[in-house]
Amino acid sequence: QVQLVESGGGLVQAGGSLRLSCAASGSIFSFNAMGWYRQAPGKQRELVATITNSGSTNYADFVKGRFTISRDNAKNAGYLQMNSLEPEDTAVYYCNFRREVPYAYNYWGQGTQVTVSS
Fold first, then answer.
1. Cα–Cα distance between 57 and 34 in angstroms, integer?
2. pLDDT digit string (tens) for 41-90?
3. Which of 116, 107, 117, 115 is nearest to 6 (CA)?
């Protein structure tokens, strides 16, 4: 069974940077779009950023200018570069790969913890 494996989370001070990575553990057809979402304690999961396989990006207002999403189509992998981190960015971050027909799928990663200290 295919799993999305995330890495790069951790503890960082405010103003610091982290880079999250996400890749499929097995062979899958290339995704149409991938995204990063986050969920803070007591809050609903929210969109952080998305990118299509053609490179079109979309960002939540609260990360514009600080985070950058990217992908490597050849590796079927996605990344989230997070700069100027703030304590409010503390959350579990999840990656998502999805593909439309044919061979449609919608996979989620297990989540990686990002903690920003003040």
1. 10
2. 999 999 999 999 889 999 999 998 999 999 998 888 999 999 999 999 99
3. 107
